[in-house]
Design a protein that fits this description.
125 residues; seven-stranded antiparallel sheet; single chain; 3 helices; alpha+beta
Length: 125
């Protein structure tokens, strides 16, 4: 199991998530959302609702590798209250289908869903 109890607890508390991609020219880009919107599927993919995320989507078309960080100050970390995670993996955008519909039920304002497949998940604080 890639996502431990602390990671799942972090998602259930207020916090921010940041997704880093890189353009074809090598320029980095960061997009943000809130932890409360993320859904972990049964096969441990992370669904991220998208309304904006246009640069992220363009970058992913050229380079699907991404890094995702998320955290909450309300979850016990390694040295006190507050913890965060760094995930590496790949992402793809969907405009329809089962995963899109699942996210649309929670966030009716979306135009797409980003399906993030993690290769690693590391607690960093």
């Amino acid at each position: 199991m890639l996502f431990n109890e602390t990671f799942r607890d972090c998602l259930s508390h207020p916090g921010i998530a940041a997704l880093a991609t890189v353009s074809a020219e090598g320029k980095p880009h960061i997009a943000n959302t809130w932890n409360k919107y993320l859904i972990i599927t049964e096969d441990e993919k992370i669904l991220i609702p998208c309304y904006g995320f246009h640069k992220t989507e363009k970058n992913a078309a050229d380079h699907p590798c991404m890094e995702l960080t998320l955290g909450s100050d309300q979850v016990q970390g390694k040295m006190g209250m507050g913890t965060g995670f760094l995930l590496t993996g790949t992402g793809r955008f969907l405009k329809d289908g089962e995963l899109y519909e699942r996210m649309k039920k929670q966030c009716e304002w979306i135009s797409r869903v980003l399906v993030f497949s993690a290769d690693s998940c590391r607690q960093i604080i």
